[in-house]
Amino acid sequence: MNKTIPEAATANTSGLLQNTPETQRKAIIALLLGGLLISCSPILVRFAETGPIVTAFWRLALAVIPMLILNNRMKHGADQVKPNSLADIAILAVPGILIGLELVVWHISLTMTSVANSTLIVNLSPIFVALGGWLFLKQKISKIFVSGLALAIVGVLILKGGPDLSGHSSLKGDAVALIAAILYAAYILMLGFTRRRFSTSTIMLCTTISATLTILPLALIFETQYFPLTLFGWFIVCALAWMTQAAGQSLITFAIAWLPVAFSSLTLLIQPVVAAILAWILLSEPLSIWQICGGLVVIAGIMQARRG
Fold it and tell me: Which part of the chain is the EamA domain (predicted)?
């Protein structure tokens, strides 16, 4: 990617952090840690006692609490503002609407096509992020980045089953999963846009609230069990809210202020690698040679793209 990390970082307006190599290292660490935290989502959802849409609602609704605390305690840069108009609120609501719809659309695709196909297609969102960054954010794409992106995508293909990937799939279901990938890419791009003006805590609070309000009517319409049945069930949704949503997404939002969005989205391809390892440990799902090789290829692709 011709636009280096320092060039991308100067696009933000944080008055508290300076654009230094140390800040960029912190941003990369935050991005990787955020990716690791949200990689726990599929495992936690598997243990949830409610349906997928209601689980998504509680994940977001309960995350509002730490977001409110964080937003009240955080200091904001001199040239970072809080929303003070309907236009500001609308801009901040867009990422939440996008991620809320992405969660719903992705879960719908899981009922129409194989889990492998759906997860794979959603993980192709970096392609749309790179294209969107090029079209709308003027971020140039180098051959080195493209080769790293291609290598990482090949790794995801291998991770999800190698030559047996196709399996039992539905063209319509695959198309719905593709819509989810586009929605997630749009979410990442909008984070990059809003992060130039607003602080991480402000963005995450507004995004979480708007996503919650987006999913609520869908949960009421399409599902009938609205509450976890046991203390363990509440523990699961609280972990989803506070660990994967509040902590994970906040770290990613912070990192996007200092890193090109295309590289940021590519690094998040570590999610299927981590999810596969956690499934092996916690759910006794065996790791095949394809999954191990795929994970190594994904990491190699990330390292290659980082050089661009």
Answer: 26-159, 172-303
